[in-house]
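TICKET: design request
STATUS: open
ATTACHED STRUCTURE:
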């Protein structure tokens, strides 16, 4: 049962959104919703882009805390968090090291596998190696090793950009080219059919807890960028339509992934559940979307909790962690 503690309303919060990644537009939408949610419960919140004016602003008038609503590298690869650490400004979410690890899907998957947490088999292929070793030979070997269908996606990135399902070997070269448009390394996974779900996890001070699982049903079967952010292309069910025993297994697996990767405050773990009820972790997001079609806010709503109250509690936790 998620409960939010009373938090100080005298804190000034800076919400960072925008940036220069491919996900800028989504980030701005997330930032506005976070900003509005905090202000709706009486907190002082300001919206700021991650641009050249940010550091002077932090130095001249540091906020009590930062909420990072940036998506893509700037908000998720740990670099901005490292800068905030240097400035002594507390922020909501995982620290720089954990964010950097979670951002790189092959590294995160290796840690999950070492912890015996199921994740689809994969190969990570940098563009340079792809060219040097001969595209045809490499792709033939990938199909031979992993089989078909395959999921191709950037090793670093989110929002489904550059991701595609390959069901015919003849379509794999085009999928790789599309992926390399967004990242210099492609992650090629064995495609696992099943029910797509996501588990949002928050820690308001009593340990990490899972919110109601959200089931994702994209109209065309693939949860890509269009399916995520275009009204009518995806149906969500919160809570997910899973048997209680399967839902419990999914939540336990997501919590194990969260702890293995050293995450903190809030994160979202994406999972595929096979027909026999086995969860496989696809990845995690340390800066979950907060738009009107995003999954963490949907899970918060399903839990019967106010988004502003959750964010306020997390801000208070970040401030307390910094010793303010």
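STATUS: resolved
RESOLUTION: sequence designed for all positions
ATTACHED SEQUENCE:
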């Amino acid at each position: 049962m998620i409960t939010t503690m009373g938090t100080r309303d005298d804190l000034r919060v800076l919400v960072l959104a925008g940036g220069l990644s491919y996900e800028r537009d989504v980030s701005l939408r997330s930032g506005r919703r976070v900003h509005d949610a905090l202000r709706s419960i009486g907190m002082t919140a300001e919206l700021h882009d991650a641009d050249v004016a940010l550091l002077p602003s932090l130095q001249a008038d540091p906020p009590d805390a930062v909420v990072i609503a940036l998506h893509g590298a700037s908000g998720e690869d740990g670099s901005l968090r490292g800068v905030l650490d240097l400035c002594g400004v507390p922020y909501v979410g995982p620290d720089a090291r954990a964010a950097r690890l979670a951002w790189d899907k092959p590294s995160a998957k290796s840690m999950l596998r070492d912890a015996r947490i199921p994740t689809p088999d994969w190969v990570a292929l940098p563009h340079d190696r792809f060219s040097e070793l001969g595209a045809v030979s490499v792709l033939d070997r990938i199909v031979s090793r992993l089989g078909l269908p395959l999921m191709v996606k950037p090793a670093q990135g989110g929002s489904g950009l550059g991701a595609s399902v390959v069901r015919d070997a003849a379509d794999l070269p085009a999928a790789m080219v599309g992926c390399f448009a967004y990242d210099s390394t492609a992650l090629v996974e064995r495609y696992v059919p099943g029910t797509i779900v996501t588990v949002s996890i928050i820690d308001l001070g009593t340990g990490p807890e899972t919110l109601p699982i959200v089931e994702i049903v994209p109209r065309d079967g693939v949860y890509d960028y269009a399916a995520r952010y275009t009204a009518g292309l995806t149906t969500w069910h919160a809570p997910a339509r899973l048997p209680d025993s399967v839902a419990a297994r999914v939540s336990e697996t997501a919590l194990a992934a969260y702890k293995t990767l050293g995450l903190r405050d809030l994160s979202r773990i994406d999972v595929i559940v096979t027909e026999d009820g086995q969860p496989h972790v696809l990845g995690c997001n340390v800066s979950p979307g907060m738009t009107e079609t995003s999954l963490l806010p949907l899970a918060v709503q399903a839990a019967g909790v106010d988004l502003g109250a959750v964010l306020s509690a997390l801000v208070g936790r970040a401030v307390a962690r910094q010793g303010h």
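CLOSING REMARK: The mean pLDDT is 92. The first strand starts at residue 12 and ends at 16.
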